[in-house]
Predict the 3D structure of the following.
Amino acid sequence: MLWKSMNQDGRTRALFLVLVMLLSTTAANLVTASTSRTYTTDTDPVDVALGDFDCDGDLDIVTANDRSTKISVLWNENGHFQKRTDIWTSGNPSQDADFEDHSNTQQVEVGEFTGDDAIDIVIYARNRPLRQDASGALVVDKPGNVTIIENDGCSVDTFSIGEQFDVVWMWDLAVADLDGDGNDDIVTLELLADIKNQRVVTYMGPINSQTQTTNILNLGDSTQNAYRELELGDWGESSQTSLTGSCDDVDLWLVRSAGVDYLTGATTAPAASDNITVVEFDCTQDTFGAALTWNQNGGAIANTQQSFHVHKLGVDFGGFDIGDINDDGIIDVVAINDANTENVSYATITQSTHTFSSTKTVYFGPYIAWEVTVDELNGDGEPDFIHAAKFKQSNSTSSTGDTTTNYFLNLPTSVQVTLSNGNGGHMNPLEYFGAMRPTTAIVGQVIGGPNSAPDLIIGHGAYDQLTYDDNFGWDGSYDRIVVIEMDNKDLAVSGIDINPTDAYVGALGEGTREVEVTVTNTGMDILNGQASVDVEIKEVDEAASTNVTVYAMDWDNPEDRSGCGTGCTWTSEAYYGANHWHEEVAANSTVGHTSGNNAVEQSANGNNPTDFMWSGLMKTNSSGDTWSGYEPNWDEGIVLNDVDLSGADRAWMSLEIFRHLGLSDLYSQDQNGFVLGEVWDDAAMIEVFSDDLGWTLINCPNSAYFAGQCPSTVSYWGGYDNGRVESEANTGLDAAIYRYGGAIPGTQYGWGNFTEEG
C-alpha cells in the first residue's frame, strides 16, 4: 500500500517502485551529486562501453560483469537506462551454472565486427584460466576467450554469441578501424601459457569463422620488458603508398614497464614503468610487424615500412591514457598517474615534429586511482582528467607535528574530475560520489543533445585482501553503474548543518539556530560573484495533514487505484531467461512438510495461506518435499509504474514481503583452519526510480532495524546477512573476512510486516 500525505507546500515527484530478487550480494549507497544517477546491473560491472545497439541515435551502455555468467546491456530511453537485458556468456549453457562456470568478464568494447551495420560487442571473459596443482605449479585449467557478441539487428534488442578465440591471460583490449576500410578491428595484449612471453594479437574485421589468431606482434619475455596497457590512436605519420594507392592508419600505444617474473612476482629488470612506446601500423600489409625488440631510442619494425617511438614521461608507474584534444584524429596528449596516487603527469605532442612537451603534473585529489581518462570536457582546448578513485586518503597529525597518511577501505570514494583553466593550468578537482569502489570512467553523450555537456559513465567492482572483501559487505556488493550528467554551469548545496539539535535524532525545537550552508560549483565553467541562498525551516503539521491512499493491492481483493489517475500499472521483468512472476494462490501450498528447513513455518505458503505475488516454480527436493522456490541465476523484478506523488510533502509504503535467502561460499585454509574466502548470495531489494537519482534503495523504519528485520538499514536483504551482522559485531565492518570454521547459514526472515500494524 502506498500512502502520501498532503500539505500546502508539497513537492511534485513521479517515481517507480520495484521489488527485485537476484543472485548477488547487495547494499546501499546513494549517489550524492545532484547530477548523478544509479542503475542496477548484474554482479560487479567492472568495465563499461557505449554503442547505439538499437540504431535509434542514442548511445546505450554495456557492462563487463566480473563474478558472473552474464554481461548487461542498459538501453538508452530518453537519457534514462531503466530497461536492461543480460546476455549469457558462460561456457555452460545451463542456467544452473555455478561459480566454476562464471565467465568473469573483465573488459568490454564495441564496434561493427561482422559487416552488417549493427553495432556488436567484444568481451574478454577470463573464465578460470590459472589454477595450482598439488605442488603449487600453475596449470592452464580453463582458458579465457575473446568473444564477439553479435547484434541480431537494430530492431530486435537481442544478441548471439559469435566467434570466440582462446586466450590464457589478457592485460588489455582495444577497438579501432586500423586501416580505414570501414570495418572495426580488435587488438589484444596477452600473456602466453608460460606466463612470461607477451604478444599483441590483431583481429582484422570483418571477423568470421575464417579469422585466425595469426596477426601477432611478439613483445618478448616479461622478465626483460613488461607490457600491461595498450591504447589505439593515430601517431600522425605520413600516409603510406603501395601499388593500390595510399592509406592512413591507427597506431599502437604501449607503456613499457620494469621486467617482472609473474610466477614469483619478483622484479627482474628494475626500471621506471613510464616509457611510452608507439608502434606504427603498416596499413599496406595490415600488421604491426612480427616482433618488437625494444630499445630506449626507438627504431624500425622489421619487414614493415614502419617504426616505433619511445618517450619517457618521468613517473614511476600508473594508469595510462591518450587523448585527441583538438579532435583532428591525431593523438596529442599522453598521461600516466604518478604511482596511481593523488597526481597525474602528462605531456602534449606537437604533430608536425612528433616531439613531446615537458611533463606537467596535476593534482586530482587525496585518492588512489588505478585508471585515468583524458578528454576535453569544458571546451577550452586543453586536457581534462577523470579518475575513478578507489581509495581515499586520511591524514593524522601527532603531538610532535608529524603527519601520517593512510588509505582506509571504508572511507567514501569518488569520481574526480580535474578541469583545465584555459591558461595551461588546472582547477581544483570536482568530486562526484558514486559506488563504493569505482573501477573505470568513460566519457560519452548519453543524455541531452549534441551541444550539451558530456556525460560520465562509471563502472563498479570490488576490492579484497586477506581480511576484507567489499563483496562481503552491503555497500560494496550493491551492483550498479553511475551516470553523471555534467553541466557547464551548476551550483549545488552540497551540505547544510543546523545547530543546536537534539543529540539523538536531530530534532529541532523552538528558538534561534545557526545554519551553515556549503555551496559547491559542480559545473565546468569558472563562476565569479555572489549567490543568494534562502534557508527556510517549516514544520509539517501531521495533525493537519491528510493521508491519501494512492494505491493498494493485497491480491485477495480488487486493487485500489483511486489515487493513481492513469498510473500504477504492473510490469514484471526477467533480465535473462523466462519470467516466473505469478500470483501464488492458497491452492499452490507446499507438500510433505517435515522438520528443519522443510518445516511448514519455513514456507511462504505455510505462513501466509492467502494470495500473493511470487517469483518461483514448484520443485521436489531431495527429501521428497515439494516447494515453490527461486532457481540459480534468476534475476527478476516486478515494477509498479508511474506512481504520482504530486503535492505530497512525504510518502511511505506499506507492504508484507517474504524473504528466505540462501548462499554459496568457498573457503581457503591457513594455519588456523578454514577461512571464508568468497560468497555468492541471494538478494532481495526494493528500489525507487526517479528522474533525479535513477534507482535507489529506501530507508527502513527504525523499528524494523531493531527488530532484526532490516540489518542493512535500507531495503536490501541477502543470504549472507547473518555473516555480515556477525562480522560487524566483532570487527565493526560488515565487509570483514572474520569467520573460521563452518559455513554461515542462509537468512530466513520469513514474512515481514512493514505496515502501520507491523
Q: What stands out?
A: The longest helix spans residues 721-731. Residues 569-755 form one domain. Helices lie at 604-607, 702-706, 721-731. The first strand starts at residue 2 and ends at 11.
